[in-house]
Amino acid sequence: MFEYLQKNLDKAFHILKGNSKITEINIAETLKEIRIALIDADVHHQIAKEFVNKVKEKYIGKKVLSSLHPSQLIIKLMYDELVMMMGKTNREISFSQKKNKPTIILTCGLQGCGKTSFSAKLAFYLKNKKYKNPLLVAADTHRAAAVDQLEILAKKINIPIFKERNNSVDIVKNSMLYSIHNNLDVIIIDTAGRLAVDQIMMDEIQKIHHISNPDETLFIVDSMTGQDAINTTKAFYKVLNFDGIVITKLDGDSKGGVAITISSLIGKPIKFISNGEKPNDIELFYPERIANRILGMGDIVSLVEKVQEQFNEEKTKKIYNKISSNRFDFEDLLNQIQKIKKIGNIKNILSMLPGMEILLNNQKSKQNSFKEIESMILSMTIYERRNPKLLFEISRKKRIAMGSGRNIIDLDRFIQQFEKINKIMKNLNANSSHQQIIKNFLSKMME
Asked: What is the pTM of this model?
């Protein structure tokens, strides 16, 4: 996420290296590169221009504190401006305040933007984070297999779904009665994808909006559509006054510029981002955390939140005790990897650690290292997993390598990584935090 933009901004900051003062010459060159990086990442050209002008106005001739480098000043300014541009602060879902009235959330957007997947992710999020009882409503009567897709997703996350053979407006009406009778407090309506120029489809979404009177209307934007997403969002907003924006597919080949631009141009907050295919690949949008990621400073706060969902203090201390007494084995390692995978997409987790985005960009072949490690551990016998020292025998190595589809060199490299993990973990004490353990663990696994 944002590695393309981050890499180009890093080049721009490099210009100021070795300078003790920001001058008109070095700032002009740096800002030129920053503007190019922003535009190249699909940030709207007008926004990019305003952005660099604000930097220039505030920092030309500014003396650098003895403890602060010129590039650090630019990064600090960029952080502040990025946070302002992306909406200043996060905005939560607006829940119904009326007694016995379920909260109604209407999702809408263009064709292929990921509305159905997001609707399921949102239901999963509300169930597990907000302790709600959501209902998914299959109101897309136009796309073939749309109802089937939502039903499959709902079954995976154990969320009830309302569907029937009817027109979309009546489906929504009936779902509201169904939710009340079944004590479901959130209704998430998955509507059909539409083109802004399709008047029939736009009339339908307006009717659905009028009938449902939603507490929250979310417009879903595919990040990979680039600057064109801005134009379609503006056109859609003229027809339907939505409350917030959701950006999907940030784990793909998007350059991330739409996330920076869209909120300031539309005047509506980004509420969620989606960055994967799993039910938990959804995040509340925090401008300050995203600004940190864009500038290569990581996002430890989000990482901590994700880690705490899978780990607790008691389990952390048990792992520490096994490591400190040389009893941490391959079964324990496999268990830790599987828990980390539950946190979310490995690439997205690593991007939350400072500097790791660049590492991933330069070592893409290592992104699948966890899969390779799992295959090697699963090719061991239970006795071998619990006794790592047995793997010094060449006959065992050959069998494990063959069983996992790897070679002896790969297996040896993995064993060395395992030893490094043990050494680095021994430097932690029994009261070390979850995030510190995970940070050290992930860093070593990616070496």
From this structure: 0.74
